[in-house]
């Protein structure tokens, strides 16, 4: 039966002109934002020497995101999604301009050691991301036919992680070579280029369905849909707790400086390593036919992610640490692609914005809340025990999800 479908085309979604411009814009903006993450992390840790301060960076972004993400999803279902992406990308560029201006203006003097202006700008970034992420996910779906959702998700995740590879490495190198002022200016240039890429997309939005009831009724539809889909809810919850407990990205500056004894260049390499593994896995997946036993694969990959975090915490070798982080990125890529494809397949088009926003509340905010958890746990338990604890919690979450959601364990292909 599979032979009748025809040969697998790994580049099918990239043959769409508009989709190529979309992922080009996504890649440039991601490159800038990932570079910004390294620069801000090193700035804050240099000024405070406190791992909890790194966690507060994540919390500053997560609080507004959590508060507004559902409204961002509602907006993505009611307003031109391309216009939302353009407005929010430009707003992210303005936030990076504020960080550049602050770093340039207060290189010395009483505010040279201050971190509250950085927290303030990151808070604004969280507000913007609450509207950017749902619209971005929904727009990616609009630009492709349903038959190409899986292929498009694979390339979108791959391009996103290319930005995550190059951004941290570039951020660390530029910070070490020229300092935070030049680094923030380069971030501004990259995100602005991402905005310009969106100008070339030809997009005709579908007319929104008439709204029934209040805005809160509409928001509730997205929540009810997610909670009615056990497969989707199980996949989202699995990633939520894995990222919440299992990540070590927020405390990488501490590992770089105090455990592995390297500088900002080394931090950039550590931040880039997961994305290197993810990109390699993404290109591999793009050339493979649709995956069988997708549910078991998802559970296995999240468990391997937790195991990689435990091994990373115990490593004292810079090379081994890089390899472990790369392996964690490779298995994480598989789970991201499977979850993204599942969401696109089961969600009606007119609800994509709201359902994507619910997904982002679960997954997107878990990165920042997880950053706060990592910083707080490192303060309370110590750096190494906190990451080991997080990896063990990830393994327990996988076991619990496999037991409570047998449909996920038994899922074969996502079609």
Report on the architecture of this protein.
58% of the residues are buried. With 415 residues, the chain is mainly alpha-helical. The model is unreliable at 1-5 (pLDDT under 50). It has a single domain (12-203, 215-410), classed as MFS general substrate transporter like domains (Growth Hormone, Chain: A). It contains 16 helices and no strands.
Report low-confidence residues grouped into runs of 5 or more.
Answer: 1-5
Mean pLDDT: 81
Helix content bin: over 70%
Number of alpha- plus pi-helical segments: 16
From the spread of the alpha carbons, the general shape counts as: globular
CATH topology: Growth Hormone, Chain: A
Q: Pairing-aware structural class of the strands and helices?
A: mainly alpha
For the CA atoms, what is the radius of gyration?
Answer: 20 Å
Percent of residues in β-strands: under 5%
Largest sheet: none
What is the CATH architecture descriptor? Up-down Bundle
Number of domains: 1
Q: Say which CATH homologous superfamily is assigned.
A: MFS general substrate transporter like domains
Could you give the distance between the termini? Answer: 15 Å
Q: How many strand elements? A: 0
Quickly name the level 1 CATH class. Answer: Mainly Alpha
| Assembly type | single chain
H/E element sequence: HHHHHHHHHHHHHHHH
